[in-house]
Amino acid sequence: MIPVYARLGRAMTLIYAGNRRYGPRATRLMAEVTRLIGFLIGLACGAGELYLLVLLARALQNAESGKILAYALLKLALLALAFVPVILFVRDELLWCGVGVTATLIVGAFVVNWKNRRSGEGDQ
User: Fold this and answer.
1) 37-77 residue pLDDT tens
2) Average pLDDT, the chain
3) CA distance 27 to 12
4) Residues 71-82: tens digit of each pLDDT
5) C-alpha dist (Å) from residue 82 to 27, 30, 50, 121
6) Which uninterrupted H or E stretch holds 76?
7) Is the dihedral of CA 28, 33, 36, 38 positive or negative?
8) What string of H, E and C letters represents the secondary structure of 46-70?
9) CB-based burial of residue 73 (10 Å sphere; 0-12 exposed, 13-18 middle, 19+ buried)?
10) CA angle 115, 79, 55 (to 5 degrees)
11) What is the pTM of this model?
12) Distance CA 2, CA 16 (A)
């Protein structure tokens, strides 16, 4: 006899997949698609964060206090706009969203520094 929790898990897998014929395979495919969605949201958020970070650094160098406050608040709002839907709808993909944000920021920081060094503006 199959334990109750095993039968319930199989039934939930079939319900989640929405198709009795392709139950577990469709569930794995759905998990991969949602992981990709979380990562793509993270990449888009990271690109926006990097752009705002560059603007914030320029505003800090020029001592423009109004722009500093605006860019800092926009950075927080962008982060919230990316993470809140992921937390509410695809909570399991929050880690992948964070990976996308950090990957974009790290790679983007190297690219921005490399471009600035070539133009003579960056760290020497």
Assistant:
1) 888 999 999 999 999 999 999 999 998 889 999 999 999 99
2) 80
3) 10
4) 999 999 999 999
5) 25, 21, 14, 31
6) helix 65-89
7) negative
8) HHHHHHHHHHHHHHHHCCCHHHHHH
9) exposed
10) 35
11) 0.69
12) 21
- Rounded distance between C-alpha atoms, residue 53 and residue 58, angstroms: 9
Q: Which amino acid appears at position 21 of this protein?
A: R
- Report residue 72 CA to chain centroid gap: 19
CB 75 within 8 A of CB 49: yes
Neighbours of 71 (CB within 10 A): 21
Which residue matches tokens 């970070």?
A: 53
Structure token digits, residue 17: 């997949």
- Work out the number of other CB atoms within 10 angstroms of the CB of residue 33: 12
Q: Which residues touch 104 (CB under 8 Å, ≥6 apart)?
A: 42, 43, 45, 46, 47, 49, 50
